[in-house]
């Protein structure tokens, strides 16, 4: 029997996710009420244009353009409008008025997370954001709750579906980046302006959220080292295939010791990397997402599924909503974010990684020795070397795989190679991860 009063839900935004959240709330009202022990009452949906076409057929009387009034009196505000403003102001107003908040807005959390979490903590409100990373994939709650007693050492995430689709398409068809991007746009994966995805900005925002949560520290998005996929070529993909790798845009969050002081720090970075084809992340195809977590006690875990999509992402929003509503029924304050660890975010030069370097060199006696000397001068050890000679041009292509070394030493080696007279060009440099 349901005895608790209805829980009033105000929805901000009715785009592809928001309209599905509203639809599911209305269609599954009785089932949700039975699970929660109280009814979820959708009191209104704030939008810019009441008459705009929606992905779901929703009662017109629910729509309003007055978000500020809608928020007043709501128990839970679901923010799915995206962007920084007015989302930030409205979320702060919702918290100040006593509401809990569910958001799927990764840009907002990446830019203003600490301010919003502090505001929520001050009044004991809940701020939940499962939909902000990995769409439908449960990853925030597992990090926040299931792994709360463990120590997360590393996260390797494919957190951007558009770029995974593009790289997968290049890998499976041999297409160029431009052609694969055109297909992604045609199929509706890529936005008209794909910069946020292919530039790695979207993945960097998600990396900030994951790292802050996993390492109990605040990671500003500006501290995330970011490289997009715009420089990835069909040749790099083909060469990766030959060597048993696949190129993936990875969001990497890793604990490591500061190489200069020995103090504990974290590295948070986004770049395209070579992943062994035997690694579970290599099996993530198309626009899917996956987050590979390495925890001290649990060992490796992988969370996989749809990283975007209206109804898929609505599942994550509804999960947050049900959890918040249940807390209303049982009482007590919300879960606050723990940033007690306060560890330094180390610069990219501090990490240890492996490089795969492709060089065009003159095919002359002594060239290999000069190149080997250069690696040794920078303290970088070569693991593999493959040479292909083009008789016509008199040039050779060298593919060199290094052992693990400091990023700074590897980057300095590449700079020295590029400046060396025997090197015609540095055709490709990719890091190797996940091995
Ligand atoms: N643009 C994102 C992606 C989806 O391609 O994965 C929403 O986060």
How would you characterize the overall build of this protein?
- NADP(+) binds at residues 12-19.
- One of its GO terms (molecular function) is homoserine dehydrogenase activity.
- The structure is a single chain.
- This protein has helices at residues 16-27, 29-36, 67-71, 87-96, 106-123, 140-146, 161-173, 177-186, 195-198, 201-215, 234-242, 310-330, 367-377, 407-419, and strands at residues 7-12, 40-46, 63-64, 76-79, 100-103, 127-128, 152-158, 225-226, 245-257, 264-276, 288-295, 299-306, 344-345, 352-362, 382-390, 395-402, 405-406, 423-432.
- It is of the alpha/beta class.
- The protein folds into three domains: 7-133 and 311-330, NAD(P)-binding Rossmann-like Domain (Rossmann fold, 3-Layer(aba) Sandwich); 140-306, Dihydrodipicolinate Reductase, domain 2, CATH 3.30.360; 351-432, Alpha-Beta Plaits (2-Layer Sandwich).
- Strands 7, 8, 9, 10, 11, 12, 13, 14, 15, 16, 17 and 18 form a twelve-stranded mixed β-sheet that branches. Strands 3-2-1-4-5-6 form a six-stranded parallel β-sheet, sandwiched between helices.
- A hairpin with a 6-residue loop joins β9 and β10.
- α4 (87-96) runs parallel beside α5 (106-123).
- The longest helix is centred in the C-terminal third of the chain and has 21 residues, at 310-330.
- The model has no long low-confidence stretch (mean pLDDT 96).
- L-homoserine (HSE) binds next to α7.
């Amino acid at each position: 029997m349901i005895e608790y009063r209805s829980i009033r839900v105000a929805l901000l935004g009715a785009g592809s996710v928001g309209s599905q959240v509203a639809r599911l709330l209305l269609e599954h009202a009785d089932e949700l009420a039975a699970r929660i022990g109280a009814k979820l009452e959708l009191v209104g949906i704030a939008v810019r244009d009441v008459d705009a076409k929606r992905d779901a057929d929703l009662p017109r009387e629910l729509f309003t353009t007055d978000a500020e009034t809608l928020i007043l009196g709501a128990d839970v505000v679901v923010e799915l409008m995206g962007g920084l403003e007015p989302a930030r102001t409205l979320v702060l107003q919702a918290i100040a008025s006593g509401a809990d908040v569910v958001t799927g807005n990764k840009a907002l959390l990446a830019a203003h997370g600490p301010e919003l979490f502090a505001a929520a903590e001050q009044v004991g409100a809940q701020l939940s954001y499962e939909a902000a990373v990995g769409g439908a994939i449960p990853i925030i709650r597992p990090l926040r709750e299931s792994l709360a007693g463990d120590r997360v050492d590393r996260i390797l995430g494919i957190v951007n579906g558009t770029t995974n689709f593009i790289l997968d398409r290049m890998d499976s068809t041999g297409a160029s980046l431009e052609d694969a991007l055109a297909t992604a746009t045609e199929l509706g994966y890529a936005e008209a302006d794909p910069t946020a995805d292919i530039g790695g900005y979207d993945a960097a925002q998600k990396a900030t959220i994951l790292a802050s949560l996993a390492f109990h520290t605040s990671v500003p998005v500006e501290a995330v080292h970011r490289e997009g996929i715009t420089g990835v070529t069909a040749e790099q993909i083909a060469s990766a295939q030959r060597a048993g790798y696949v190129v993936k845009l990875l969001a990497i969050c890793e604990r490591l010791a500061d190489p200069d002081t020995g103090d504990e720090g974290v590295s948070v970075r986004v770049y395209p990397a070579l992943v062994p084809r035997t690694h579970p992340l290599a099996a993530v195809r198309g626009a899917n997402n996956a987050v590979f977590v390495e925890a001290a006690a649990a060992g490796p875990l992988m969370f996989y599924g749809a990283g975007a999509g209206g109804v898929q992402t609505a599942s994550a929003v509804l999960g947050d909503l049900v959890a918040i509503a249940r807390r209303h029924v049982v009482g007590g304050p919300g879960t606050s974010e723990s940033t007690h660890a306060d560890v330094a975010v180390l610069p990219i030069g501090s990490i240890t990684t492996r490089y795969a370097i492709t060089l065009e060199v003159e095919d002359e006696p002594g060239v290999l020795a000069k190149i080997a000397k250069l690696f040794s001068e920078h303290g970088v050890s070569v693991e593999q070397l493959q040479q292909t000679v083009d008789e016509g041009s008199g040039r050779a292509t060298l593919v060199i795989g290094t052992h693990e070394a400091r990023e700074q030493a590897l980057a300095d080696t590449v700079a020295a190679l590029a400046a060396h007279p025997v090197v015609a060009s540095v055709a490709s440099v990719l890091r190797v991860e996940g091995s």
